[in-house]
């Protein structure tokens, strides 16, 4: 009888723990969904707004700084070369990465005029949350875009965008690795190339 009681207690504790974990995951997913909806609304407002290009760029930079883990994505994209880069190179790379990110998004604003973003669902994946959205823009078929949100329950930040199954940060890391391989693993060469990219687009 004692063993049965112990088993029953253990079962109740385990069941309660699993239920608590599911509730916590559901709450984290809901928070991630709300965070992405708010961020998406701000992005759409900038894209569809009537502001001048320079003002839109500033607004985008503010949204990115507040909603995206730029430093974390930068480290991910530099990959194994982050460990061999000097502290000064790491700092300069993150600065240029931020400028490239803002520049690339700003340069595509005209293509996305009239865009609509609809949040579909959110789910927990390991420590992150995946928020699925549908992006509609004029004269183009709807696109499914997944947003990877880290620390969804406490301090949500976007760490990746997956468009039609393609991870943008993974693609960028592969591009950087290819460039560095062609340029004797010279991180300064990559930083200079990033500077040229933003200068040409400015």
Number of distinct beta strands:
5
Q: Spans of 5+ residues with little confidence (pLDDT < 50)?
A: none
Which structural class matches the secondary elements?
A: alpha+beta
Shape: globular
Strand-residue fraction? 15-25%
Rg is 21 Å
- What summary fits the major beta sheet? 5 strands, antiparallel
Range of helix content: 55-70%
H and E order: HHHHHEEEEEHH
Termini gap: 78 Å
* H/I helix tally: 7
Mean pLDDT: 87
Cross-sheet strand order for the largest sheet: 1-2-3-4-5
Descriptive keywords:
alpha+beta; 7 helices; single chain; five-stranded antiparallel beta sheet
Please characterize this protein's 3D structure.
- By secondary structure, this protein is α+β, with helices and mostly antiparallel strands.
- 62% of the residues lie in helices and 18% in strands.
- The protein is built from seven helices and five strands, in the order H-H-H-H-H-E-E-E-E-E-H-H.
- Strand 4 and strand 5 form a beta hairpin.
- Helix 1 packs antiparallel against helix 2 and helix 5 packs parallel to helix 7.
- The protein is globular, with a radius of gyration of 21 Å.
Summarize this structure briefly:
It contains seven helices and five strands.
Secondary structure: elements and pairs:
Layout: H1 2-48, H2 53-67, H3 70-78, H4 81-84, H5 87-107, E1 116-125, E2 128-136, E3 143-150, E4 157-163, E5 166-167, H6 168-182, H7 187-201
Antiparallel strand pairs: 1-2, 2-3, 3-4, 4-5
Helix pairs in contact: 1-2, 2-5, 3-5, 3-6, 5-7
């Amino acid at each position: 009888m004692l063993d049965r009681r112990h088993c029953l207690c253990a079962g109740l504790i385990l069941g309660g723990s699993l239920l608590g974990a599911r509730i916590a995951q559901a709450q984290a997913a809901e928070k991630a969904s709300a965070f992405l909806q708010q961020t998406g609304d701000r992005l759409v407002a900038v894209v569809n707004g009537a502001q001048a290009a320079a003002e839109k760029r500033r607004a985008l930079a503010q949204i990115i700084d507040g909603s995206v883990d730029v430093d974390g994505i930068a480290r991910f994209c530099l990959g194994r070369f982050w460990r061999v880069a000097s502290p000064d190179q790491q700092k300069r790379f993150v600065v240029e990465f931020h400028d490239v990110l803002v520049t690339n998004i700003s340069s595509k604003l005209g293509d996305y005029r009239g865009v609509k973003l609809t949040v579909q669902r959110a789910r927990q994946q390991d420590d992150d949350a995946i928020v699925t959205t549908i992006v509609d823009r004029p004269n183009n078929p709807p696109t499914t875009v997944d947003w990877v949100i880290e620390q969804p329950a406490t301090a949500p930040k976007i760490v990746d965008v997956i468009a039609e199954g393609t991870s943008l940060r993974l693609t960028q890391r592969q591009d950087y690795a290819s460039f560095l391989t062609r340029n004797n693993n010279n991180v300064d060469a990559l930083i200079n190339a990033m500077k040229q990219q933003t200068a040409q687009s400015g």
